[in-house]
């Protein structure tokens, strides 16, 4: 039987759809780790990027943090964190958060910077206080680029969460790592297909969320910034 | 103070004795890491520049190329390595195919950005001076696109150096194999050495390419 046929057989085998090593459980673990890391990273990164962008200061710092962050290998951080904190979700969440922060800081910084100065002036002239100006004028205009950063981070986090299996964690990486270890490449391939689909699905659903979040008026402005989202692959 | 029958063994983050006796081992890992990276970048560049030029001239090809490699880029590297094992087996080829694919996306996009940004006036002037289309491409358009191509080269190189660490999980021997070794043997030194050298290599490569850019095209300062 062909290899692809075996992979197909693996997927339709009901035994692989239940229990602690079943596909739904593993997808649940994978999404749980990814969502937690992304949420922590967003809470750290977005306020920092938005504040720096609003005041227009320390921009070089924000970009430099992002560049230095790119050079950090997630695999290394993950294993170091595992040696420090031991078994559990913490090392994974730490490594994934470190991965997700830089694109979100850079993108939200650039997003706020790119708001047209005339529009800021107009908001001031209409009597907006500073907080209202950020929340009701600048942020809505910045949503497309901020979301582009969130999407970049999310796809990379979902991709890299695979590595959790290296330090005895759960998630879809289990199939890949266990398959390589036991030379059962059908399991490995099945895991790879699942991760790839999950990464593509994450990107697509966040694109949907982005479409919902961008106000209609901004969509009509046809903000050119969306196309220039900085992407960077780390895993 | 804790008193016990057994001496407690504390594993320091760096065991200099181990390091001093394992320098060739570390250098082997570093060399393989550099080799895997250089091959991925060189082939990626050799594919991307012609492909970028063609895609710049053909709107359909541009959409197809960006769409295909964009989707490819979303697939996690470990998943791709794993998917290729049954076909190309454990080894360099399995590592290079995904790495090259990722680099093509980064580089083609930058070639396109560079070529798109060449001002219309400059093209008209070149035409007026009698440049044929090939000469115009090589002597006017590509030189003007070089800053964008260099920017892509830096991103691609730093990103490749990071991803190469993961090839250790499919049995290759770059710096990731030191990280893997530290993990399996519960021994901190190779893990720290592997991680630190990966970061250092990425920073050195980034600075090196920025320096090369300064020499090659002194009129455009790297960011």
Question: Could you give a short description of this structure?
Answer:
The complex is a heterodimer of chains A (235) and B (223). Chain A is an all-alpha fold and 235 residues long.
Q: What's the topology here?
A:
The complex is a heterodimer of chains A (235) and B (223).
Chain A: H1 3-12, H2 23-55, H3 59-71, H4 74-85, H5 90-113, H6 117-125, H7 130-160, H8 173-182, H9 185-213, H10 216-221
Chain B: H1 16-21, H2 23-57, H3 59-74, H4 77-88, H5 92-116, H6 120-128, H7 133-164, H8 175-185, H9 188-216
In CATH, the topology of chain B is named: MetI-like fold
Q: How large is the radius of gyration of chain A?
A: 21 Å
Termini separation of chain A (Å)? 32 Å
CATH architecture term of chain A: Orthogonal Bundle
- The general outline of chain B is elongated
Oligomer: heterodimer
CATH architecture type of chain B: Orthogonal Bundle
Explain how this protein is built.
The complex is a heterodimer of chains A (235) and B (223). Chain A is 75% helix and 0% strand. By secondary structure, chain A is mainly alpha-helical. Chain A has one domain: MetI-like (MetI-like fold), CATH 1.10.3720.10. In chain A, α4 (74-85) packs across α5. The relative contact order of chain A is 0.15. Chain B has one domain: Orthogonal Bundle (MetI-like fold). The longest helix of chain B has 35 residues, at 23-57.
